[in-house]
Fold these 4 entries.
Entry 1:
Amino acid sequence: MKKAFLPLLAVAALMASCGGSKAIKTEDITKHAGTAAALVEQISPNSTAADIAKLFAAMDTNGDKSVAKDEAVGKVAENFDALDTDKSAGLDLAELGGLLGMLK
């Protein structure tokens, strides 16, 4: 149940922050990048699944439920290849959660 809920939460957060089903504008991408950078700096070993879901939503600027290397910022960008455990060239929510393990 938890695995199914987190991706839905991430999508809902992204859609809400982008104004629903509207197309994402360039200024929205810039806003998301700034938000993602701020959120990634706040991630710590004590962060929760909800914190990771917020970060995922902020970085997934195109809404494809995957964070590509060019969408990643900060610690996520620095550790992208290690986090991308299935080598799909994109991080899903579970893979992004691996960031917490790296911080411990």
Entry 2:
Amino acid sequence: MQLLTQMDDKVFVHLDQLISLTMAYVSIDFQKVLSLWWPFKVRSMSEIYFEGVTTTFYMPDPMKNGYITKKDLIYITDICLDTVTVIECNIYYITADAFSNRTTWDRCLRNVYISRNPLIGSSIAFFPLVLLQNLTKLTVSDAIGTCQTFSPFPRLSFVEHFFQDISLHYLSLDGQTKFINNLANQELSILNGTMYLYVSKNLLSWNSKRLVPDLSLRLDITFGGADNLQSIDLSDSGFHKFIGHISGLSSLKTAIVSGNDISHLSDYFLDELYGLENLALSKCQFDRNFIALKSARILQNITKLKVLDISNNSLNGLSKGTFSRNSELLYLSLSGNQFKDIPFDLKFTPNLKILDLSSNIITTLTTDTTDALDLLNSKNGGFQLMLNGNILSCGCHDLSFLQWLNSTLVSFDNNRNYTCMNKDGERTNTLTFSDLESLWRQCWGECFFYVAMITLCLYVTGAVLIFLMLKNKNFLVSYFLQIFGNFKLHTRSDYKTDVYIGYSDEDYRFPCIELREHLERNLKLSTFIIDRDLLASLDKASGIVDAINSCWRVLLVCSKSFLKDEDWSIFTMRSAMYAQSPANPAKIVLMVHTSCLSLLPADLLSVVNDENILVVSEWKINYILSEKLRTRLMA
């Protein structure tokens, strides 16, 4: 309708049945349009809706339009209206007495919406509207331009009817309230350092979003008549110094204060808002040290709190016991802060269903925390955790967290896919590590391989040591007896004969002739041969035992027949084994053919040191064998 630039003064004269009128983007001065409503005086209408009714769509001209006085509103305030809406009509100033004639509206008007007008005058002119007896929703907002917006509360079922009406707003006050205002019926006054502010008893919703450029709340404020006021929106305005007492808002359920300067806040500011259920404090420039010490105290009296938004405040901690008195909390937004973990004990919020921790500095969550989140999910029939905007850690020390992230029934934003840093310091995402087995192998495979190898080596070493201990039991016993006891090893001089030669009767030639002669002539050792030296008066068994016990060394020539066929050979071996003692642990020396190694008895091998087993390929004395005999028999 921008082509409509003129309207006759009597344009509405014949519309005597009109109950609702909408004018959108009409190129006529708003003051001119207001002057056309004279035919509707003392009539009833449901709604008048103005949007973009101005001749200057970009910048109001103070000399031509946008200046509203009591005279301009004389007709429209005499119409019995249910709803009035004025949006983007480039109103820049409203005189203080503009709404003084409100007798008709006091009886009829229920909803007022005045939004997106570049007001540069005092917002005190709107204050008489809050006393309209039947007014339920008042919106005077968006007079201050801004590029900052705030996300609304989540539309949870328990507050949905409030959030659907979140665009219905109310009024605010500027710096002129520092003085007593002699308005009709004393709507606003200051007495003994306390500001008294009276509103309609039917008022439910009051929105002054982006209306007040500068107002300190250092004074105590007492509301009168606000028994039914349930929602206040003061967001993105110039309120500061929240250090006074607030009283008279016992029915208030929703308070949106985001975008104000709350760097100065008293810990008792919210004490009398007992019915508060929804509180938005996003981007409020909190003193992080004060919040880290006093957050529990600030929230202790609002025990019915269900929704809390303290996002974008650069907070890094909350005081101990925070939310201990807020057990009904369902939604909590901590996004846009600097928390390294969940900064409160989840046992204080047993009904919590949504926790927004996006855009913090969280890298991982401990097992205790994930267990508590799983418990909340199970108890409440669902739980949502928002972590987008955090740079998580997907290194080797966070395997349990990544496993929980992939397997838990807790709901997440961003399809559980978050930016993270891997073990090499490279940026990646968590979905890359959905196969945790491969990550586990990368992280711990090498370590456990070394552990397995070390364990195997220890096992093998232990087995070898046990084998060597069993095999060299006499040597070890002898060694420790020498160290810890009054014990000495026997020497060659302690024995009557140097060498007892044991052999098979079938293979006597080598031991009795060549070997004996070498020992006696070349090595100068005395020998005992059973067929030569056994006395006729002794039985053979006794003679063998006595001879072995009286000899320094027992040299057993282990031919095939010695090891397999002869009983006396076995008796000789047994006697030698029993004769070996810790005093003479190397008593037995074996000379065995290579073809007979497999025939050596295990019990014989268990008592003979490997060095005392001389393996020969033929029964013949050579230099190597001679030297071995020298070292084994003479040592």
Entry 3:
Amino acid sequence: MDKFDMVNFDMVNFDMDNFAGGPDSSAGGSSKKLKKQRQLVFAGKGTRNDYFDVYGPTARAELSFTTSQVPCNEIRIQDISQLILWVLGEAPNPRWVFVKNKPLISKVVLVLLSGLDAALFNARPDLFPGLSRCFGKPCTVSAINPVIDSLATASALLSFPSNKKPPAKRKGTAAFLEGLREKKQVLPDSESRAEVLKRLRLMMGDGFLFTQPPERGKVFHEMAALDCEMCQTQEGLEVTRISMVDTNGKVLLDRLVKPKNPITDYLTQYSGITPELLNDVTTTLADVQKDFLKLVSADTFLVGHSLDSDLKALQIVHHRVIDTAFIYPHPRGPPFRPALRILSEMFLKRKIQDRRKLGHDSIEDARAAMDLTKLKIHNGPSFGEPSSKLGESLVAQLGEYGRRCSLVDKAKALHRLVKGTASAIQCSTDEDVLSKASKEAQSDKVSFVWARFSDLSSFYEQRSRSLDAVATEAAELAAMMTCTSSTAIEGRIKQDTAAEAIDDEPDNAEDDPCAEGSDAVTHLSNGAALAKSTTSGSDVIARRLPWMEPRVSAELEKQLRMVDARVAALHEALPTNSLFIVATGHGDTALVRR
């Protein structure tokens, strides 16, 4: 199968299988029509069908690197998205690459191999027969930073720099309050609290209580976090547990509640409430309302996640709330709300709502909401907002071009990456990713497919939790530091090679890609030349000094071979004239972070 391929190894790698047919005068259609089609094709304005009519049914796109204008090692991760926008949309041609017969490309598949890096790939090519067969020589691409997680790399790959000037923004607390007003989370300045409460009483009806101004001599908490668990009754959702904590996470209130109406569903998988827990409970909603009002005055800042649901179930009206579902907006914008579990893992590095446990823990959830709020206050109003530093969304822009996009990944990644009209296809394993990405790639309706194989990075994360393994890997990592000074590393290599009688030294400095001033040229499989000004020290060390090669355990080798096999299988599933891009990110970042 002939395909148009590109592989990126962050130390990154581009290569193509490109075949371009010449003009075929015997192609179908009248000579007059064919002449017009040729004119359009040669002017770069022809359609996909025009190219096939002119060049024949075996016509192929052809890619070449223009490294004379932009050296390959100066390409950034985000430049890949510019190539995709040019191929599938209306963006300008990137200076570092050119695609001949571009309209023939019907599909782009972008794959991220979280955990693989250039040093490992170069040191053990025997573990990657599939990648070697499908692709060619690596091409260096600038990384974001050495400890970034794979989802940040994914965000960079799926974004492109914006040329729009952002509007002037207010700063500090004023901007924060202004943003809340836009989301209707604060009271209008023009209305007094008394007027609003009067209208609310009419709207709410009987049963709802209002927090009161603090009485002289009574002590109330300035800020407290609330979380409730609920069950389904004949009259709807009712509270079965209420928990409150202070700013230090100390429990202020934690009580089980007997619903007024018969329970139809305990919702145990979410609430953790079982019939046994409520058997001897006599506490009513009125009881916990009194407890709540003893702790919270009208001046208290009440913290929680989706507090509207909790306060509605408690039948309490309170106007000073900090809702983490709003101060940490969902990447896709309203009406979507981020899950507390995702926010906790992303910003607090804390796992809550463990699915292996029976239901949620309302104290745990209240503490998470409080800590997220304190983090927001400490870091400022812009903390936790969807980052604008990376630019605009690639998939959103492709959607505006009328291109259908499918993102195949795990749930956590999809929450962060899916924008606009893109389809989110959730997977639980890399095998699932392979199966669903292959299916999407074969669909005529889909123009862009994103897939991320993450089992290798998950393996690294698990291994990093072992202190012995961390110590061993850290020592090896220190031994394989990338050279920043070509002369210094060359001197060390020459000393070591002389001592160990290694006789594979280049005949002259011009043959050594790490020599001062070297400008080595690597030829791709299609005959295009890819210039590299330097080669990383890890490449040189791994080649010259076998004792410094990365140690590959049996478990790691198994993971690497599976990654390689999955990429090769996805490659085979692609239709003709597909652009296939594979990026690796930064390698074992779990070790570096540890």
Entry 4:
Amino acid sequence: MIQWFVQRRYEHVLMAARFYNQIWKDGDASLRIDKKSDVSKLFTESVGVSPTVASLDSLSNEAIREAAKYIEAFELMLSRDELHSASQRLMEAYALGEYLAPVATLSLEKKRRVATYTRDLNELYGTLQAHDYTKTKELADRLKTNAKDFPSSKVDSAIAAYTLASDLAIEEAKAHLLARESDKAAEKIRAAAEIWPTNPKLQEFRNLVNQSGGLVTIRNDFDRLLSESNFREIAKRQYEIAPAIQGDATREEAFKQIMTNLMKIEAALGKAQEFSKVGQSYAAWEQLAELREQFPDDPKLGRELELLAPKVADFTKALDKARQFENRSPKQTGSALAWYLKARNIHPQSKLADDGAKRLVQEILPPDDSSPTAEIPKTES
């Protein structure tokens, strides 16, 4: 009976005690146990009396009732998503009566929820000890979501304090680095790493150190891209190039001009897209064609013109014919004017066609009639 009691098999103890009482009537008598044994010490030190059959029966009954209460409390807290308290009640029930029916028959899903919570909680303590506050924050957020009673105050305070201290140390290290105080920068960055070894800003600082050593390489890249007229790549790397060429007046002027030109091209592309959306392909093409003469090597501008070309083929053909006749020697003024007028008939708002026609009219008409107010005859479609 004592062996079963120590093993927490209380139901076996009850059956043995009841069977004993059916045969013998001395249940209140102390059991004969070696006083020097560990079992005797267990009862005398914890309970204060020597064990009897009746006391074992009573203690077993009490243990069964307590385990049932713990499981009942566990079920209630679990239903309320209070996993922290539920896990404590389950541990108490398990420690008291591992083999009792209420504990042994708990559903696997309920055990799994508590096991997941406990695993995350233990991992949280591990990440705190390792100063991995990124993972700690992730685990704390998950625990707060899953368990309404998760005690997060200490964890949140620790995360906020240590991450702030590490970030401030890194900012001080950056300031020392920019001031070329390498020793002080190294001291601050070492302190930041000790506080929070996985701080993402440590990588930013490392990149800053690498960049400060690679400024010459970046300047060489800028010169190469400039010689290749690869302005799009320069714009793509503008935030990398701008700090590297700071203080170099020649490179800065070239860089500013490139960015201004690309902004002009992008603005024209935006307007062209708006024209295309409302079905004004001719206006979209002309918007880009004017810029194409200034920036013949821009790939994006050329690609957009190629996409518009099939939609404006008749208009571009008329303009090309007009220019061919205008540029011939001797100049075919009448034919050129006719083609410009045809182009304007296709796209009445065409600035290219209108300017070409006005230019030829000024050559044809006498000086008195060639004023800017002279009207160009309209053609019928």
